[in-house]
Amino acid sequence: MVVMPPASSLPADFVGRLAESVTQARTLEELVRPLLELLQAVTGLESTYLTTIDLEAGAQYILYARNTHRLQIPEGLSVPWEGTLCKRALEENRAYTDDVANCWADSAPARALGIATYASTPVRMEDGSLYGTLCAASDERKPLADGAEQVLQMFARLISQQIEREQLVHALRQANDTLAVSALMDATTHLPNRRALMAELARRQSALAVGDRALVVAFIDLDGFKAINDQYGHEAGDQFLRAIGGRLQGAMRIDDFVARIGGDEFVALSSPPRAEAEPVGKTIQDRLLTATTGRFHFGSTVIEYAGPSIGVTVALDSALDPEALLAQADAAMYAVKRERKGPNARR
Prior knowledge:
2 domains, single chain, alpha+beta, Beta-Lactamase, 4-stranded antiparallel beta sheet, Alpha-Beta Plaits, 22% strand, 45% helix, 6-stranded antiparallel beta sheet
């Protein structure tokens, strides 16, 4: 709970300025800058600043500072955490002194900066962890105004709440990004999934109306995959799928697209120049077959694979929608499968 100091100890416009700062701040900096200005008015000390502490690195950083007199606390300054006034004040539970030279004579940062009067309070997160300190200082010996310690504590709490809001927003955005990526990614191979493929197909088809590019769609079906699962187990089957995905990607160009659309089926897209579409389609078919045929090693498990069935179709315009174009490539793949296994083969 935030406790307000006695009204008699505050500047006349304190409440209004504080309310404006809190309600309008969208970022930590937008909150802290006006609070540092208010803190100067309340404490009577010319330098106010917010620090952040990296306990693992043993360092303290001046994050934001406001200086209006001879004493200059530079933003971005980094000092060893050991020996700082902030650490001494926390350890001794001393929120204020106007005799820094005698109280903490061995503090090198205090001597270097010329601090004579110092007041601070820790900025702690909801779980009690130490984020940093909120401080006020002067190069002259000055008394601390009535209510200043309460204001320091109140501002520190407001700052910690803002930090936690920003951390929550960041975490939510990261989670949202992760969900967005996972919605378009196959969990086993980490390749784009069918949903991502259809979006990419639509994008590449729409581009056929301009420029001189064609669209090559290769449909890959892993013949014999069920037998691999049955003989070596599903873990080896998943390893095989990931290896196939890697080989398919390795056989395509950097601007091509490879997806797993489910089960033992993959699709590869390429956008070669229109005049080269047919020979490029045949080259892609041969390259993908070569890349995915042969020996696969998974620890002590060795799989000799005779290769998949690969059907290729070429689109020169956007006459077919993505589903129809994919169905055409699927039909081409099935024709290859029949040739490889005979007319009585089942899919």
